[in-house]
Amino acid sequence: YIVTPQSSIVHQRTDEPQKISQQPGGERAQTDWVCEGNESDFPRRRRGNAMGGDQYFDSYGDINVHRLMLEDAPRTLAYKQALESLGDQIRGKVVLDVGAGTGILSLFAAKCGASRVYAVEASDIAAHTKEVVSENMLDGVIKVLQCKVEDADIGEKVDVIVSEWMGFYLFHESMLDSVLYARDRWLKPGGLILPRTAKLYASPINMEKHCNDRFGFWTDVYGFSMQTFIAAEAQAMLRAPVIEQVAKEMLLSEPQLVKEVDCATAKQEDLRSFTQDLKFTARKEGICHGFCFWFVCQFENGVTLSTAPSKPQTHWKQAT
Question: pTM of this prediction?
Answer without folding.
Answer: 0.82
